[in-house]
Design brief:
Elements (H helix, E strand, L loop, with lengths): L1 E7 L2 E6 L4 E11 L17 E10 L7 E4 L6 E2 L6 E7 L8 E4 L2 H41 L2
Length: 147
């Protein structure tokens, strides 16, 4: 089977793989104010977040799909200066995942809904404030230009 050997600062994090996988990934994400001229993201209030995710989708010939994770909690926190390495290997066995979750259609719809709700709530105050400010500015301009 194909697997991903993932290391952080030279230490093994996982040998991720399973015979029933149809998708396997390892990625690093950075969120927040990453540069001097960048806007803060919705996560910016907590500063910069760096993390590693190692996961996959098991789609066995029989039975339902499952999302597998080889990092704790869904991710592993990283820090500036960390070195992440990923090597693609062919192995007979791999580390068992730290978590496995059934991925039914209903679960998927619920996850999408939760993601959309979280994004809405994160931007609600900012965008509603901007809209109120724009409406107030428009009213002031219209009053000034009225005969």
């Amino acid at each position: 089977m194909i697997a991903l050997e993932v290391k952080v600062n030279g230490k093994k994090v996982a040998l991720a793989g399973a015979e029933s996988l149809s998708s396997l990934s390892a990625f690093v994400n950075a969120f927040g104010k990453l540069g001097k001229s960048s806007r803060s993201s919705s996560r910016g209030a907590r500063g910069v977040e760096l993390f590693l995710h190692v996961g996959g989708l098991a789609s066995p010939e029989k039975g339902g799909s499952r999302h597998l994770r080889w990092t704790r909690g869904p991710v592993r926190a990283l820090a500036i200066g960390d070195e992440v390495g990923v090597r693609i290997v062919r192995v007979k066995s791999a580390d068992p995942p730290k978590s496995a979750r059934s991925l039914s259609h209903v679960d998927h719809e619920r996850a999408n809904w939760e993601h959309a709700k979280k994004a809405y709530l994160a931007g609600k105050e900012k965008f509603e404030t901007e809209t109120r400010d724009e409406k107030a500015k428009t009213k002031r301009v219209m009053r000034k230009s009225a005969p």
